[in-house]
Write a structure and sequence with these properties.
Blueprint (H helix, E strand, L loop, with lengths): L1 H9 L13 E6 L2 E6 L1 H13 L22 H19 L8 E5 L6 H13 L5 E5 H10 L7 H12 L2 E5 L8 H16 L4 E5 L15 H5 L1 H10 E5 L6 H5 L1
Parallel strand pairs: 3-6, 3-7, 4-5, 5-6
Antiparallel strand pairs: 1-2
C-alpha cells in the first residue's frame, strides 16, 4: 500500500523534482542529517498569499511596469514616470521605516487603484501577508458582524483589516457619512498608525478644498478629521498627476 502511494506521488508531474512536493530537502553535512526549505516553497508562498489576499479579478495581473504612460503630454509623462520610479523605490525598500503607508488621491478613473494594487502585489511577493478591502464592503461587513445571524466571515472582517501585515483599503470615504463609519475608520487607522503597520489607501475625495469658494466636501468631512490626521502621520500622500480618465485612455 505504501509503495503504491509513493509510486503515485512520484508520478505527480506537478510535484517539485527536488523535494517531491513536501517543501523540504533532506541534507547531510559532516555526518549530520538536517532539513532545509526547498526553493519551490519560497516561490509558492508569495503566490498563495496573493491568491488569498482578495485582489479583485480585474486587477490580479497589474504591475508597475504595465502602467500605460503613452498618450500624455510631455510634461505629464515626465511626472508620471517620476511617480512610477518613486513607487518602485517604495517597493524595493519595503517595509519603509518612515511613514510606511501610501495614500493615493485624485479624481475617479485616474489610475489610483491600478497603482495601489500594483504596489500591493509587489510588496506581498516580498514575503509579506496582505489583504485587499473595498471600503464600502468592509464597513458593510463590519456592520453585519453585529447581527447575531451573521456568518464568521463578517465577524472577522474588522479584525482581519486591523491585524493584516499589509492592508489595501480602496475607495476610502465611499460610504454614507455616519458616526458609526467615522468611529470605525478612526479606530482602524489609529491602531495601524500606532503599530506602524503599512497601509495603502485610495480616495476620490480631496484632502482640502481647491479654493475658498469650493463647496465640495473634503476627505476630513467624510471620514472625520482625526482619521485624516492619522493618514498624514502614517502615509506618503500621492496626488495623481493625471487629469484625464486613465480607463478610457487605456481603451
Amino acid at each position: 500500500m505504501v509503495d503504491g502511494l509513493l509510486s503515485a506521488k512520484n508520478q505527480d508531474s506537478s510535484a517539485c523534482s527536488k523535494c517531491g512536493g513536501s517543501g523540504w530537502i533532506i541534507l547531510e553535512r559532516d555526518g549530520i542529517s538536517g532539513a532545509e526549505r526547498c526553493e519551490c516553497a519560497k516561490t509558492a508562498r508569495p503566490q498563495r498569499v496573493e491568491e488569498q489576499s482578495g485582489i479583485p479579478p480585474l486587477y490580479q495581473n497589474v504591475d508597475l511596469d504595465s502602467f500605460n504612460t503613452s498618450g500624455f503630454m510631455p510634461d505629464e509623462e515626465k511626472v508620471v514616470r517620476k511617480l512610477l520610479w518613486d513607487l518602485k523605490t517604495y517597493v524595493r525598500e519595503y517595509p519603509p521605516s518612515d511613514r510606511p503607508g501610501l495614500l493615493f488621491t485624485g479624481a475617479p478613473g485616474t489610475g489610483k487603484t491600478y497603482l495601489a494594487v500594483a504596489v500591493f502585489r509587489a510588496a506581498i511577493r516580498k514575503m509579506a501577508g496582505g489583504v485587499f478591502f473595498d471600503y464600502q464592503t468592509l464597513l458593510d461587513q463590519i456592520r453585519s458582524g453585529y447581527d447575531k445571524q451573521s456568518g464568521a466571515t463578517d465577524k472577522e472582517a474588522y479584525r482581519t483589516a486591523l491585524e493584516s501585515e499589509l492592508l489595501l483599503l480602496d475607495d476610502l470615504g465611499a460610504h454614507r457619512v455616519t458616526d458609526f463609519t467615522q468611529d470605525v475608520v478612526t479606530a482602524l487607522l489609529t491602531h495601524r498608525c500606532n503599530n506602524r503597520m503599512p497601509t495603502i489607501l485610495t480616495t476620490n475625495w480631496p484632502l482640502e478644498g481647491s479654493s475658498e469658494k469650493d463647496t465640495a466636501k473634503t476627505l476630513g468631512e467624510v471620514i472625520g478629521w482625526r482619521a485624516v490626521s492619522r493618514l498624514h502621520e502614517m502615509c506618503r500622500i500621492i496626488k495623481m498627476p493625471i487629469n484625464t480618465d486613465y480607463r478610457m485612455r487605456k481603451r
